[in-house]
Amino acid sequence: MATMKDIARLAGVSTSTVSHVINKTRFVSEEIAERVNNAAKELHYFAPSALARSLKVNRTNTLGMLVTTSTNPFFGEVVKGVERSCFLQGYNLILCNTEGDNERMKSSINTLLQKRVDGLILMCSSLEGERLDAFEQYPDIPVVVMDWGPMLFQSDKIQDNSLRGGYLAAKHLIDSGHTQIGCITGPLIKHQAQMRYEGYKRALNEASLTFNANWIIEADFECEGGYQAFKKMHASGSLPSAIFVCNDMMAMGVINAANELGIAIPQSLSIVGYDDIHIAKFMTPSLTTIHQPKYRLGKAAVETLLKKIKKQTQEVQVVQLEPTLVERNSVRSRTE
């Protein structure tokens, strides 16, 4: 019966490399992986099943991830970072959509835990502030959450500095000479939306600018929400010269509504978005926005989770990634 040593000898690699290829525990180049797999076939080597390995080491080399279903490509860009990082680390990923349904989310969490995933990544704010009994039943399975507010269960956290991002957006408009600045927020019960709005208010207060209640409208982080919010703002009377729209999806809706109303961007209205999704630079005009390091958010979530799985740390970790301003063509300077 062939062994890994026999495969290593035939393929001209080390035994550890053979192990990594067969068990998928580390990234190995395609050329070397092909040599190892061909040698294994030639020697009629049968790898132990994933179930047998998981029972032996009490691990499945599988992570679970839950996301809120949305048309926003932001989520897909973060998931890409998670998937790629899992592959490079030799882990499989089971991805579940919650579709914004609390009961579906709880059911998905229970299912993943019962399937013996080694750890969980949660990227949906619908359970913000809720207690989850499932985590008390599986206390040894580490959890990482992304961009939630206060939680009633222990977990590590990966977050964007939304307060800083909101401040940067409004400050850019102020530095561009705007004094009448509105804000279309996300749902203010959500931590991210509240922090971006607080950053906007901090910048305006710092510049001693006044707030117009008609220019501050709460929406839902979706294109339709941005579209309807701008229509509502327009119907209330005069418009500001600039708006901070708290994500790029809503900014797309605002641009669409403005075009319908014959309002030129940026000549008559300047806009700053948030997230810097891939299509932001292809809008007309290209969107000035706050960049979230989406791929790095996903990568950081996996790395943080693996530290707990491998028991490299027991401390609760909070990893905060800093946003940056990306200047494009949706803001008109009034200082020239």
TrEMBL record:
<dbReference type="GO" id="GO:0003700">
    <property type="term" value="F:DNA-binding transcription factor activity"/>
</dbReference>
<dbReference type="InterPro" id="IPR000843">
    <property type="entry name" value="HTH_LacI"/>
</dbReference>
<dbReference type="Pfam" id="PF13377">
    <property type="entry name" value="Peripla_BP_3"/>
</dbReference>
<dbReference type="Pfam" id="PF00356">
    <property type="entry name" value="LacI"/>
</dbReference>
<keyword id="KW-0804">Transcription</keyword>
<dbReference type="GO" id="GO:0000976">
    <property type="term" value="F:transcription cis-regulatory region binding"/>
</dbReference>
<keyword id="KW-0238">DNA-binding</keyword>
<keyword id="KW-0678">Repressor</keyword>
<dbReference type="InterPro" id="IPR028082">
    <property type="entry name" value="Peripla_BP_I"/>
</dbReference>
<dbReference type="InterPro" id="IPR010982">
    <property type="entry name" value="Lambda_DNA-bd_dom_sf"/>
</dbReference>
<feature type="domain" description="HTH lacI-type">
    <location>
        <begin position="2"/>
        <end position="57"/>
    </location>
</feature>
<protein>
    <recommendedName>
        <fullName>Ribose operon repressor</fullName>
    </recommendedName>
</protein>
<keyword id="KW-0805">Transcription regulation</keyword>
<dbReference type="InterPro" id="IPR057343">
    <property type="entry name" value="PurR_sensor_dom"/>
</dbReference>
<dbReference type="InterPro" id="IPR046335">
    <property type="entry name" value="LacI/GalR-like_sensor"/>
</dbReference>
